[in-house]
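Hi R.,

Here's the chain you asked about this morning:
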Amino acid sequence: MDTGNTAFMLIASSLVMLMTPGLAFFYGGLVSRKNVLAIMIQSFVSMGVTTIIWIAFGYSMCFSGDVYGIVGNLNNAFMMGISPTDFFSTSHSVPVFVVIAYQMMFAIITPALITGAFANRVTFKAYLIFLVLWLIFVYFPFVHMVWGGGILQQWGVLDFAGGIVVHAIAGMAALASVLFVGKRKVKDSGPHSIPLVALGTGLLWFGWYGFNAGSELKVDAITGLAFLNTDVAASFAAIVWLIMAWIFEKKPKFLGLLTGSVAGLATITPAAGYVSTIDAALIGIIAGVVCYFAVTLKNKLGWDDALDVWGVHGVGGTLGIILLGIFASSYINPAGTNGLLLGGTNFFFKELISVVGASAYAFIFTYAMLFIINKITPVHVTSESETNGLDESLFGENAYL
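And here is the predicted structure, written out as tokens:
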């Protein structure tokens, strides 16, 4: 066991865990005062529910064996056949239990990302069913296909830390949720606490270093590259979004700066360990522009994606995969490959086809799943609950006295 690598991965796991409370604060600040707890509990409950599922069979579905290249088997369900002295197959210096914990943190935050899209209008019971089914039928299969030895990994698809596996599929699931659930019946008063959003952004940004740099699963030069690229892309995207808001909205918006940074973080995620730092800066600039206009388009189309999950995470993750297909360099990371600019045409189209296919599946399955859930229990809250606020009507609690 390499104690340095193991210690680093434990810290990275802790950083990624911190992102889920950070997301709760980020989303909590963006909604009205009477819906703060309702959106925050959806993130925090994922920490409990997803952990139970992950230990029971989620890890095994992702990383144990292979069934037709789509999903793993259940040989490691309930941690069967795993010893504390075992090492993870692709990083022999780190105990497998450490990697199990690290990947579990990814599983926790991914479905929580979706919740921002249907803020203020989904019942808690329906969300819990949604959480379980989405993990089993969307998240776990794509983890296996991309990272667990499945069909996309075998095909040569690269995704350093979750452009497909996390952001693209979560963003498209968010869009499907918006279109199925429909608009809020009660107009939301907008962000009730931008300082709370800033706190959440800071926690997300801080945790993202573990999210991206930790995905190397050890400490080497690529770890440092991914760490630096993460900050560079986020910073460039934040400033670009600020400038865009200043131009089109006539004032530099703090909320725009914060949203832009998250867009940059989402977009660099799949490419963080495969591109140069200059390319990371370009990716950040492109993310700031494209994601800003994606949110603008969403508003023009009247989609009630309350907290811009599609425009930031869905578009950002998809864009990141495409840009990875363009900018990837085997000189930067010999374990990677060359992108379109260096002659890697086949790799570019593999990335493009994979992210489009994954996004389409996530959208279609999520919409169909919500249709089925709605037959079991109402997905949309009542008009009375929306009017009174979900905190009081669903939970009997209030964030503020």
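One quick note: The first strand starts at residue 87 and ends at 88.

Cheers,
M.
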